[in-house]
Design brief:
Radius of gyration: 26 Å
Bound molecules: alpha-D-galactopyranose
Shape: globular
Strand order of the largest sheet: 11-10-12-13-20-19-18-15-16-21
């Protein structure tokens, strides 16, 4: 199977979405000239071109795309060619309304925007396969082609009758018999027992709380149904060009697709990232989703889309301050990206995204955006040979699972304030601020490469995952588990005892007697064994220990005197439990302590606040997210690959500045992903 390296070939790809059908062909000449000037090596073409390529059913027009691909090739620009199936033309919805999605209440989602297709519709699938087949047959051997991009940000949900029939087939495959399904869904509750398969529907709008196991299976089914659409198109393009890697672009930390399952079907993982430049933790959001993309890919990944400035879909859309596009692009490279691309090349003058920024803005190439884009192209060109294809050093894993996300965020639970993504973000932030580079991992994945494993909260854990965690700790791993973990099984049945017995044994807990979620404005105080105090929010639990040491106790509220944080030696390893959400500083202190005790060191030490450090392929990336210029003291001699200059002792980083340091005395062993320098010298 081909992979991203087959497209990058020792470079960092640079470019963006290119939608030339929005412009007269004269403009294309200026486009390619300016692309060359900006160092663009890769453009993604055809994402929304279905109506242009097939203006009427079965009538194809490829002439313009022939000219475009030839033009790009003549200028040395590679093409990521998209199948246009995310946005069917109006004729499809007009002639075949059954291809349009229906909402939970049965209303039709019409054409006039994009993404209006039902993943279960045989007619949609037939038409999507037909255009994909034509495209792949025509361009599969084109010399400009470097990658295939299937569809765009799969995410449409549907509750129509065709979906219902497809859902029933999926359920038959998963559960086998109606008896099993009734048992898995707990239909004895509220008289929901199904006597015939045909009675079963997608969870449509209902009078009151819907069956949680049905909702969980429907989330799984929808991810699988969309994945079937992806794999069908993947198979077509791969048949015509077996050496060209195939991808689709994921939305960052997107609830609707099981990213672990999807990544297995893709040759390369591509992600769209739009952190809010006005959010104090925008950089951390970027780091989190980059860590997820790298972990899904199991190595280098592709940043398919980001913005040079403002987006057009927030309530207030502000540009990025000078330098931020470069800083966040280098952050993505540090965290494993081998392609840095934007939405989009030339800013649209019409349509829904005319206020969305682009590489080439309305104001033209004289604008500072284009100058920044051009400078970034040069930076990436310099870094490519040293960076492309190399691994990122991470010895911590944060466990994440879409099943747990889907099951935990349902109505009728202890607290709606426990928001899966917010919770993961808070725990990741603690590790990010301490410069402990973190992979994300599925709870049943091989955890042996990691010395520290953290679980922000995984309400649902399968038997396989629980056995995996127990074995990990028993054989010497350090686990830090958070509140409301190990509560339900794979079908969202509460486990005997409220929290799984295997997990309690690992944690040294006799019982979790009660969950005590906190109100939004409520803060508790906890006291450590050393007499320190920290605040906590969100959640608390009434614990009874059985062998675990109490690291901190609740000081006030109903739980005063009860353990809040525990630590337990189990087998060769150690397992911590946090029954509450410590304030950010305290969470960082606890995770840093667990990491230190596990023998971990951060990517670099003693850095000024706001400086992110990441090690990739024997290089140390330093990224200044703080508001002003800083100096970092680092032992050793190095070369800064961005400036080409040698240095020693101190690295100065401007506001939004970055350095990519290669030790002058680099030995082959330093290229090992876990090599520690220069902090340990
Ligand atoms: C109502 C209903 C019960 C149960 C409770 C839960 O009283 O009649 O069946 O749902 O609410 O609070
Ligand atoms: C997504 C889409 C793009 C564009 C951008 C705008 O990433 O894939 O087509 O709409 O959002 O931010």
């Amino acid at each position: 199977m081909p992979d991203l390296n087959d497209a990058t070939r020792g470079r960092i790809l640079y470019g963006g979405d290119y939608n030339p059908e929005q412009w007269p062909e004269e403009t294309w000449q200026e486009d390619v000239r300016l692309m060359r000037q900006a160092g663009v090596t890769s453009v993604t073409v055809g994402v929304f071109s279905w109506a242009r390529l097939e203006p009427a059913p079965g009538a194809y027009d490829f002439d313009w795309l022939d000219r475009l691909l030839d033009l790009l090739h003549a200028h040395g620009i590679g093409v990521v060619l998209a199948t246009p199936t995310a946005s069917p033309p109006p004729w499809l919805g007009h002639r075949h309304p059954e291809t349009l999605p229906q909402a939970e209440n049965g209303t039709t989602v019409w054409y006039g925007s994009r993404n209006q297709f039902c993943a279960s519709s045989p007619e949609y699938r037939r038409r999507a396969a037909a255009i994909t087949e034509r495209l792949a047959a025509r361009y599969g051997a084109h010399p400009a082609l470097t990658m295939w991009h299937v569809n765009n940000e799969y995410g449409t949900h549907c509750w129509c009758d065709e979906t219902a029939a497809h859902f029933r087939r999926w359920l038959q495959h998963r559960h086998g018999t109606l008896e099993e399904l009734n048992s898995a869904w707990g239909t004895a509750f509220w008289s929901q027992h199904y006597a015939e398969w045909d009675e079963i529907l997608p969870p449509r709008q209902a009078q009151y709380i819907r069956n949680p196991a049905q909702l969980l299976d429907f989330a799984r089914f929808t991810s699988d149904a969309l994945l079937e659409c992806y794999t069908a198109e993947h198979a077509i393009v791969a048949r015509h060009s077996p050496a060209i890697p195939v991808t689709t672009n994921h939305m960052p930390f997107w609830r609707g697709q099981d990213g672990w399952a999807w990544a297995k079907q893709q040759d390369a993982v591509a992600l769209d990232i739009y952190p809010d430049p006005d959010h104090a933790l925008g950089a951390q959001h970027g780091a989190l989703v980059q860590d997820l993309a790298r972990s899904m890919a199991g190595g280098p990944w592709m940043l398919m889309e980001q913005a040079t400035g403002a987006v057009n879909w927030r309530p207030v859309n502000r540009p990025k301050p000078h330098g931020l596009t470069r800083l966040w692009s280098l952050q993505a490279v540090a965290r494993g990206a081998d392609a840095i691309c934007f939405f989009q090349w030339r800013q649209s003058r019409q349509g829904a995204e005319k206020f969305h920024s682009a590489m080439l803005p309305h104001s033209g190439p004289g604008h500072r955006t284009f100058r920044e884009v051009t400078a970034l192209g040069a930076d990436l060109d310099r870094l490519g040979p040293a960076v492309s294809g190399t691994p990122v050093a991470a010895d911590t894993a944060l466990l994440h699972d879409w099943d747990a996300w889907w099951a935990s965020e349902q109505p009728g639970r202890p607290s709606e304030l426990l928001d899966y993504q917010e919770n993961v973000t808070a725990w990741h932030r603690a590790l990010w601020e301490a410069n402990h580079t973190t992979d994300l991992a599925h709870p049943a994945a091989d955890l042996t490469p990691y010395r520290l494993v953290v679980i922000p909260s995984l309400y649902l854990l399968t038997d396989a995952a629980l056995d995996n965690l127990a074995a990990y700790v028993r054989t010497g791993g350090t686990l830090v588990a958070g509140y409301f973990t190990g509560v339900a099984d794979h079908q969202d049945r509460i486990r005997p005892g409220g929290v799984d017995a295997r997990l309690r044994e690992v944690l040294g807990l006799a019982a979790v007697h009660q969950w005590w979620p906190l109100n939004a404005d409520e803060t508790l105080h906890c006291t450590t064994a050393d007499g320190d105090t920290f605040e906590s929010t969100l959640w608390a639990e009434e614990l009874e220990t059985a062998g675990a040491e109490t690291v901190a106790r609740y000081r006030d509220g109903e739980l005063a005197g009860h353990p809040a944080v525990t630590r337990h030696a189990h087998g060769e390893g150690t397992a911590w439990y946090l029954s509450t959400r410590p304030a950010p500083d305290a969470l960082r202190a606890l995770l840093t302590r667990a990491a230190r005790e596990a023998g971990l060191r951060p990517a670099a030490e003693h850095l000024p606040a706001g400086v992110e450090a990441v090690r990739r392929g024997g290089l140390l990336f330093l990224l200044n997210h703080g508001p002003q210029q800083v100096s970092c003291d680092l032992p050793g001699h190095w070369e800064d690959l961005l400036t080409g200059k040698p240095g020693t002792g101190t690295v100065t980083l401007e506001r939004h500045g970055a350095a990519v340091l290669r030790p002058a005395d680099l030995r082959p062993a330093d290229l090992h992903p876990t090599a520690m320098y220069p902090a340990e010298q």
